[in-house]
């Protein structure tokens, strides 16, 4: 095998490991090759631990003359500002007029550090949600990475490489992240104003969906509204973590720390199980209304965000797929839909009274489908027990009812139930 092949195999094996061993504090070379045509350059990928990281990072900084591109997690900004050996690196970069780009996750916790980095070093920063792992590319020639950063703590283990293929691969990763990242100014302003970044994405993991649901509730400073099937109440009843998140929000509402509680529209069935479930959530302070015909897409919406799904959680299981959005037009759409449902809904207490007393739910609706109209008419006649009154608007209407079989059905019903009376006008 030639030298290049050995380097590629060695670095590939190294990068495929889930974590870097820290068995020794010495610098360990995974592969080394001396000599290009001049026989001077050393090409190597190596790992360093503890104090051995300091000379490598200092040399990395001294070698950087033109460009530095970094991806760092949300702890990275605090390391740049508060760790002396890292701060020293950035002083060197500044003195050498190095152009620096940093992609990181800007949060309320590291906002101050990000501002200091921009003001102190003139660095361009962009926001990218959920960055994990940390690496830097210097002048398209060197790669430096750390598997994990701890807030304001020195680096404990690093990997350094000047292998061309490794540098190019991670430079491509950086450019992809940078292209999709958001401007720092926009993200900082949104954090300061309490506004979430505008984005829409799919969550297709139930563990992530649970974490998202808790985060959604925490961000709902003016309350939120739900339109779901009864299965979502079953989910809350079974999931203590999510149920506690609702209790926390309602407690904040009672204490005046958030402006509104929780409103919910759902279909409340005639079963005792449904009634007992709804009573439980009314008791903790959720406002609930009964709606006969819910939209097929279930959703939650707050001032800041909305989340939707088509999953009907009949048995109270957690979501598998949900769609999140902070797009203002989507938020307005679901707020409008919810308001219409809330306005036509029946108060949950009234619905419970109707079910418990056997009172027929009063409703008026227009049936435009002729097949459904015929079936509804036949069912009405078939279910009659005492009296039937029919008003025909014209002779043609009588003919239509004869064709439909209404008259024959009336005759059969009167023969079966002798006390049944019917009047045709």
Characterize the structure shown.
This protein folds into three domains: about 5-165, Endonuclease Chain A (Endonuclease, Chain A, 2-Layer Sandwich); about 200-355, Endonuclease, Chain A (2-Layer Sandwich); about 370-425, no CATH class. It is of the alpha+beta class and about 425 residues long. Helix 3 packs across helix 5. The strands form three sheets. A nine-stranded mixed β-sheet has the order 1-2-8-7-6-3-4-5-9, with helices on both faces. The N and C termini lie far apart (about 100 Å). The model is unreliable at about 1-40 (pLDDT under 50). The chain is about 45% helix and about 20% strand. Helix 11 links the parallel strand 12 (about 260-265) and strand 13. The chain is built from 16 helices and 19 strands.
Summarize the structure.
By secondary structure, this protein is an alpha+beta fold. 45% of the residues lie in helices and 20% in strands.
């Amino acid at each position: 095998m030639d030298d290049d092949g050995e380097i590629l195999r060695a670095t590939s094996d190294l990068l495929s490991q889930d974590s870097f061993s820290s068995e020794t504090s010495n610098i360990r070379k995974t592969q080394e090759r001396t000599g290009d045509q001049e026989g001077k350059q050393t090409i190597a990928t190596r790992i360093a631990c503890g104090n051995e990281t300091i000379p490598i990072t200092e040399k990395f900084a001294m070698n950087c003359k033109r460009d530095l591109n970094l991806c760092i997690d949300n702890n990275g900004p605090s390391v740049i500002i508060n760790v002396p050996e890292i701060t020293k690196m950035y002083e060197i970069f500044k003195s050498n007029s190095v152009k620096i780009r940093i992609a990181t996750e800007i949060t309320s916790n590291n906002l101050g550090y990000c501002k200091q980095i921009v003001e102190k070093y003139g660095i361009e920063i962009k926001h990218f949600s959920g960055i994990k792992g940390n690496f830097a590319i210097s002048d398209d020639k060197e790669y430096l990475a750390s598997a994990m950063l701890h807030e304001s703590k020195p680096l404990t283990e690093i990997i350094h490489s000047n292998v061309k293929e490794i540098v190019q691969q991670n430079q491509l990763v950086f450019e992809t992240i940078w292209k999709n990242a958001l401007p720092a100014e926009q993200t900082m302003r949104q954090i300061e104003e309490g506004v979430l970044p505008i984005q829409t994405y799919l969550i297709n993991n139930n563990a992530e969906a649970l974490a998202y649901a808790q985060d959604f509730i925490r961000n709902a400073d003016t309350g939120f509204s739900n339109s779901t099937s009864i299965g979502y109440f079953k989910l809350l009843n079974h999931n203590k973590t999510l149920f506690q998140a609702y209790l926390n929000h309602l407690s904040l509402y009672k204490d005046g720390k958030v402006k509104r509680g929780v409103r919910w529209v759902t279909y409340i069935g005639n079963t005792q199980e449904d009634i007992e479930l709804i009573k439980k959530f009314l008791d903790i302070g959720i406002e609930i209304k009964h709606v006969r015909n819910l939209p097929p897409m279930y959703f939650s919406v707050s001032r800041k965000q909305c989340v939707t799904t088509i999953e009907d959680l009949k048995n109270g299981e957690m979501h598998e797929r949900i769609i999140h959005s902070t797009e203002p037009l989507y938020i307005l759409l679901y707020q409008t839909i919810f308001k219409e449902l809330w306005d036509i809904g029946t108060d949950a207490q009234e619905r419970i009274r109707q079910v418990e007393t056997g009172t027929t739910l009063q409703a008026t609706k227009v049936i435009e489908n002729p097949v459904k109209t015929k079936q509804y008419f036949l069912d009405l006649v078939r279910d009659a027990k005492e009296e039937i009154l029919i008003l025909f608007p014209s002779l043609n209407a009588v003919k239509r009812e004869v064709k439909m079989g209404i008259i024959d059905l009336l005759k059969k019903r009167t023969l079966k139930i002798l006390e049944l009376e019917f009047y045709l006008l």
